[in-house]
Amino acid sequence: MVLTHPSKTAFGDFQTPLNLAREVCALVAQSGFDPASILEPTCGIGAFLQAALETFPHVRRILGLEINPHYVSKAQEVCLSIASQTRVEIHQADFFLTDWPAIMATLPEPILVIGNPPWVTNSALSALGSANTPVKANLDNLRGIDALTGKSNFDISEWMLRKNLEWLDGKHGMLAVLCKTAVARKVLAYAWQHRMRIASASLYRFDSRAHFGVAVDACLLLIHSHPAGNSQQCAVFSTLQARYPASVFGWQDGVMVADLSLYQKWRSLFGTGLKGWRSGIKHDSSQLFELRIEHGKLINGLGEVVDLEPDVLFPLLKSSDLAAHRQPRLWMVVPQRTMSDDPIRLQIDAPKTWHYLNKHAHLLAKRKSSIYKNRPRFAIFGVGSYSFAPWKIAISGLYKKLEFVKVPPYQGRPVVFDDTCYFFPCESEAECDLLYELVMSDPAQEFWSALIFWDAKRPITAQSLNSLNLLALAQILGKTNDTARALAERQVVEYTVGNYQRPLL
Ligand SMILES: C[S@@+](CC[C@H](N)C(=O)[O-])C[C@H]1O[C@@H](n2cnc3c(N)ncnc32)[C@H](O)[C@@H]1O
Q1: Number of domain units in the chain
Q2: Which atom of ligand 1 is nearest to the CA of 43?
Q3: What pTM did the predictor assign?
Q4: Ligand 1 centre and the CA of 37: distance in Å?
Q5: Where does ligand 1 bind, in terms of residues with CB under 6 Å?
Q6: How many Cα atoms are found within 13 Å in the side-chain-facing hemisphere of 463?
Q7: Do 173 and 311 have their domain in common?
Q8: Residue of minimum CA distance from atom 15 in ligand 1
């Protein structure tokens, strides 16, 4: 890990080496794109401006903006030694305070927007107390749980790249930028969702450690905009030198598809609006909610012996347990049965548990995630009848393989999961056996492989799991029976079998 100065971090300041900037410009030229003007919105010391001037000597106008005045002077020095002041302009400016439409109106087409926007997230910035963020920092006006649980944590570069594409939409232009691969995909998803006029897109992976000394999954993103563009695909090249794409991802049926050709094969399995797969329970205090057993006694993460009503305790599996096919080693305190349940009922239903949570109320009040704000005291998330289904098929969201696990009840109790896992509730062993057969079948595995981006931090998502229509799958496999229909029904109507509903005691 490379330690960096806080202000360098706040400004996502990783200057592109000149040789890399030259390689990028060469790829742009190879694609046949010949710009009349070039814009670098956060130009740093000017490596891209220099490389672009060398590669496109006849360009009519080059404009570079940058927040750091020292960098502006350096970039001016370099560029003015190559081209005249009438063609090259470099100014100090803050991206977030610049009148971009006015600037774009002065640039002749085709326009090349090139560069390497800051590598920093808005939450890293707020931790630094930095103001280097857009005025309206909530990207998609995210609401509710998404905004609260972290989807609102976005890269500053994502916001900037969205703007770059908005400026180019309907114009003849090209965006050529270095960014995180995950950011590139999000920006493309945004453009495709908003039907921006894109003629073609390609993504070239490169070794960020070799060029920048930081281990980030980074790429060069090339997007060619054109007034008549209507492409929703992106070719992926394994290196900057690769001549043929390794795969093509794109926007299809309203979702991002990692491998378009594989997806075509199993497209009939795609279902919209389906549910059934759930994530495990989120509580943000393993110290208090996760108990181990030592010499027949329950011990919490503080090392205290704990005495609680058995009905609030459920055997727990985590991602690592699923991966190792282990039996539960911990027990989770589950103080609610549904999301609308208030743990205050424990006062009557389970007084020892109520006392335990109260005794540690100060620790629970410190739970960081803002999802707990305006919720009853001691509340946890991701609980419903489905959590208490006796049998389950589960999978870890962290692992990079589609390996499902059959989970039977343990010591007569339904097993619960932490929030890194996904599961599908089953009422019986027969349901669990059939579902296992369905999800491990080749069609299911190929269908999900087509949707999943394995290099993502958390590749398997509830959304990808839920887009497989179990009834269509059972039909393809010749397994359509009452059990299959019951499972498929659960994708449309929430699981409400209430064996473990209140009253508990
Ligand atoms: C990753 S560096 C890349 C610099 C240059 N584009 C290159 O490729 O070498 C990001 C640059 O963005 C600049 N920057 C950060 N925040 C900015 C802002 N709000 N407005 C303009 N430039 C900014 C930083 O000073 C830094 O030079």
Answers
A1: 2
A2: 6
A3: 0.84
A4: 20
A5: 11-16, 40, 42-44, 47-48, 66-68, 71, 94-96, 115-116, 118-119, 132
A6: 9
A7: no
A8: 11
CA of 78 to the centre of ligand 1 (A): 17
- Among the listed residues 137, 138, 191, 136, the one whose alpha carbon sits nearest the alpha carbon of residue 168: 191
Distance CA(389)–CA(367), nearest Å, equals 28
Express each pLDDT in 33-88 by its tens digit. Answer: 999 999 999 999 999 999 999 999 999 999 999 999 999 999 999 998 887 777 89
Boundary residue ending a domain (160, 180, 200) = 180
Count of other CB atoms within 10 angstroms of residue 1: 5
Domain span at 454? 278-489
Residue 354 belongs to a domain: yes
- CATH assignment of the domain containing 35: 3.40.50
Sheet holding 37-40, edge to edge: 88-92, 61-66, 37-40, 111-115, 173-180, 217-225, 198-207, 233-237, 247-252, 255-257
| Token reading at 463 | 């959304």
Ligand 1 center from residue 206 Cα (angstroms): 20
| Average pLDDT for 272-294 | 94
The CA distance from 480 to 273, in Å, is 21
